[in-house]
Design brief:
6-stranded parallel β-sheet, about 425 residues, 8-stranded mixed β-sheet, alpha/beta, 14 helices, Rossmann fold, 16 strands, 2 domains
Length: about 425
């Protein structure tokens, strides 16, 4: 298994320029046909990097956002409600290509794929994966033909399985792999991904990453690796707008220590949350987001000052952040989190909030505007410091910093990365 080192090696060939807020006309691709594939369908309710990127690409190009194909068992049993919209589209013979907005369409591939992740040998897995990919690619070709797409660019949002053979099967003019999550660290993914993702990185025409850590990692295998930064929905997290106190927060007394995001036990440290709550019984810890099984069964639910609020609509999240006195990201520092860009930090800072988080390599860019814990036991002390040292001046500095992390800036860097391949000449 390939493991990210704690101190990644810099490569002179990797493009490690940190994006700054753009103050000049930006060169863009124009009138190209782009196919976006990835792990998250458009119809999933949560936000996704690929969705924001696809919408901006569609301002100057035509884009098909391809939903991940449904696995055969899920299709036959409808055992995963998340995929019901896709299953209904196929079984009820609904329209499979649907406009999202100007120049952008959502596509439901009319195929099912066979589960192969359980296979013990990667060679055998890849045989099944190839035949899955043939079905998937055939459907993408149909969609491209129907919309008149030619000479396509493929943007693969971190899907090493379904996207592995698309370069050979679809022969795009440019194949881009977007690395934004270290799937090799997850039990489900690591057996095969640790073998095939490095192969996919090597054969891609371009690798773009949302953290310098991932860009440096990929540059050890592909010199055409580029850091494009991470975007944040700054309009949604605008502190100047009205963000009323949510109804289910009105009876919670301050100080409120808050978190928004998935409660994922592979990333978040239960012990940190437990120690914050038990050491500070007069504090209230509010956790906003869906829980995995370990969180659902955790004894954290027995602590009276920890409040689980569940999944909330995206447009309500800023109201919760506004209600927090200090925002936290109590992660482990492990192979999954070490290089992962935590978007919630930008969302917290965009609202001007003080932040306490676990120090990881990816957190380095935030260290001037956050309180970083090297050890789990440091959280209480840092939260106390954040509460005592907060000021409007510091809040303004946090907001200003977060505003440089726009999706426009990230896509500008993507365009520069594409231009660096020499395959296209971008013009304003």
């Amino acid at each position: 298994m390939t493991i990210l080192n704690s101190s990644p090696r810099s490569s002179p060939n990797s493009q490690q320029r940190i994006p700054e807020k753009v103050q000049h006309p930006t060169p863009v691709l124009r009138n190209k046909d782009i196919v976006v594939v990835g792990l998250q369908p458009w119809y999933f309710p949560m936000g996704c990097n690929a969705k924001d990127i696809a919408l901006l690409l569609a301002e100057h190009n035509r884009v098909i956002y391809v939903n991940i194909p449904v696995k055969r068992k899920i299709f036959l049993t409808n055992s995963d409600p998340k995929f019901t919209p896709h299953i209904d589209a196929l079984k009820k013979k609904q329209e499979l290509i649907r406009p999202i907005g100007p120049n952008i369409w959502e596509f439901y591939p009319d195929c099912v794929i066979d589960s192969a992740n359980w296979l013990p040998f990667t060679g055998l897995f890849q045989v099944v994966n190839y035949f899955n990919s043939l079905r998937y690619a055939r459907e993408i070709k149909k969609a491209c033909k129907q919309l008149g797409f030619r000479d396509i660019i493929i943007f693969n949002d971190n899907d090493p399985y379904n996207g592995f053979y698309l370069k050979e099967l679809l022969k795009p003019s440019l194949y881009i792999y977007y690395l934004r999550d270290f799937l090799q660290g997850f039990d489900y993914w690591k057996r095969h991904t640790s073998v095939i993702e490095p192969q996919l990185i090597r054969k891609s025409d371009l690798v773009v990453a949302n953290s310098t850590y991932f860009a440096e990692y990929s540059s050890t295998m592909n010199p055409r690796s580029w850091y494009i930064g991470q975007g944040c929905n700054l309009e949604a997290f605008d502190p100047s707008k009205a963000h009323p106190l949510p109804q289910d927060m009105q009876s919670i007394s301050r100080p409120i220590i808050g978190y928004i995001g998935a409660l994922d036990s592979s990333r978040l440290d239960h012990d940190i949350l437990r120690s914050i709550a038990t050491e500070n019984p007069d504090w209230n810890i509010v956790l906003v987001g869906p829980e995995d099984e370990k969180f659902l069964q955790s004894d954290l639910h027995n602590l009276p000052n920890i409040h689980f609020k569940g999944r909330k609509p995206f447009d309500q999240l800023a109201s919760y952040v506004k209600a927090f006195d200090v925002c936290i990201n109590p992660q482990f520092n492990n192979t999954i989190t070490r290089g992962n860009y935590p978007l919630k930090i930008d969302e917290y800072l965009a609202m001007g909030k003080p932040v306490v988080a676990t120090r990881t390599v990816a957190m380095k860019i935030f260290e001037d505007h956050t309180y970083l814990a090297d050890q789990p036991g440091e959280y209480t002390g840092l939260i106390k410091k954040a509460l005592a040292a907060n000021s409007q001046e510091k809040a303004n500095a946090r907001i200003s910093f977060a505003q440089s992390h726009s999706w426009e800036n990230s896509v500008d860097e993507l365009y520069r990365a594409i231009e660096s391949t020499g395959k296209f000449t971008t013009e304003s």
